[in-house]
Amino acid sequence: MRVLFLSFYYTPDLCAGSFRAAALIQALQPLLPAGSHIDVLSTMPNRYSTFSAAAPEVEEGETLSIRRIPLPSHKSGMRDQSKAFLAYARAVRSHVRDRKYDLVFATSSRLMTAVLGAYVARRQKAPLYLDIRDIFVDTIQDILPPWLARPMGGVFSIMEHYAIASASKVNLVSRGFEGYFSGRYPGQRFAFFPNGIDDEFIASAPDRASEAAASTAPYSVLYAGNLGEGQGLHMILPGLARAMQGQARFTVIGDGGRKAQLRKALDEAGADNVVLLDPVNRSALVQAYLGADVLFLHLNDYDAFRKVLPSKLFEYAAVGKPIWAGVAGYAAEFIEKEIDNAAVFPPCDVAAAVRNFPTLKMQPTPRAAFIQKYARHSIMEALARDIISISHE
User: Fold this and answer.
1) Alpha helix positions (H), 33-131
2) N or C: which end of the chain has fewer CB within 10 A?
3) What are the structural domains of the chain?
4) pLDDT tens per residue across span 108-142
5) Which among 104, 89, 78, 93 has a CA at the least distance from the CA of 43?
């Protein structure tokens, strides 16, 4: 069997899609029939302009080939991202033109990799398995101005229908997506395999309740991840940092389209208890988690984000630290049901965040049952088996 695997991001790039793709490849390889080969088509590391990692453009193995396509330099704007994706799409089309595949897989957050996978699968007359990590049509309705959101939403709805209708099966990483997709595509088959926890974070999990004394104020609060409109840190952190003066010191590790706005808002608020740092590799990230008293998470106050389940939650929960989360909808329900020692407040609500902070126990919390349930290798093995199953239909 020859498998085409499309993921715009791949290790060593820093993002949830990158690590998910690499873990899935590891799970797929031993399950494929003898003599099978996987072609991974991705990009050179490009997630953050402030983080670079060396990676070969081509890696050739007996059962696996990885091609990382160089992209034009770009930032977080829609225009730059569109140009980058077009470069990726052109290279993918060129690569597959004279090759034949028995199965096409595509993992996608901003929809277009899913559309590209649908295009290739139709041309190849091969079954397609989609892994959907976000509802792009829903998101742009919230983040774009109304005069642009309506026409763009119409265009991307057509593209979404093309992609979903082309797939033999679709995995949704959040159960919160189910209502949206099942309502629009009642004839499609859906699976629900979430992101899960990688081994690096499982290895750092506390194995029993800490006997050490609880931390005392000022507490070190860490956020690590993207700094975009979706996270909305520029909407919550300036006011929250001021309100928590003397009680908390904030460290933000990451980059994204709203970092400059966040920095400006912090300066205007006089919030001198916040440090902004550039992205770091995973080993340094684990150490940062372990050095913090509290791990902070936030999603902006948009309806679209009431359906998502942030991948960051799995990392945070695994390392056993208290979690302070400004989320609503499915993510809030998931935390309440699955994660001990977490304080949830409505997005962008500084007063509620301050009010809920004292409910946290300032010491490590073992979450063995959570880790066992959401270990990435188990989830990816089940997803890999599901992917292979469509080739037998």
Assistant:
1) 78-96, 112-124
2) C
3) 2-196+375-392 (3.40.50.2000), 199-373 (3.40.50.2000)
4) 999 999 999 999 999 999 999 999 999 999 999 88
5) 89
